[in-house]
Write a structure and sequence with these properties.
GO terms for molecular function: isomerase activity. Keywords: Isomerase. With 60 residues, the chain is an alpha+beta fold. The protein has one domain (3-53): Macrophage Migration Inhibitory Factor (2-Layer Sandwich). It has 1 helix and 4 strands, in the order βαβββ. The protein has one helix at 13-31; strands spanning 3-8, 39-44, 51-52, 55-56. Helix 1 links the parallel strand 1 and strand 2 (39-44).
Length: 60
């Protein structure tokens, strides 16, 4: 059972639905597994809890 974890900033539900579908389809195609066996976990991190290049994302 493939489990995919995506860490990202907040996105709307429609974008996440599309992402989950595309990731699932990629695993079905590449690994020849049933879609029901693919799990996608989305962890959303707020901009004030994520940093890059020495700065909080919220400060950009």
């Amino acid at each position: 059972m493939p489990i995919v974890t995506v860490q990202q900033g907040p996105r709307d539900a429609e974008l996440k639905r599309d992402l989950v579908k595309r990731i699932t389809d990629a695993f079905v195609d590449a690994y020849r597994v049933p879609a029901e066996s693919v799990q996608v976990w989305i962890h959303e991190v707020p901009a004030d809890s994520w940093g890059a290049a020495g700065r909080l994302t919220a400060d950009k």
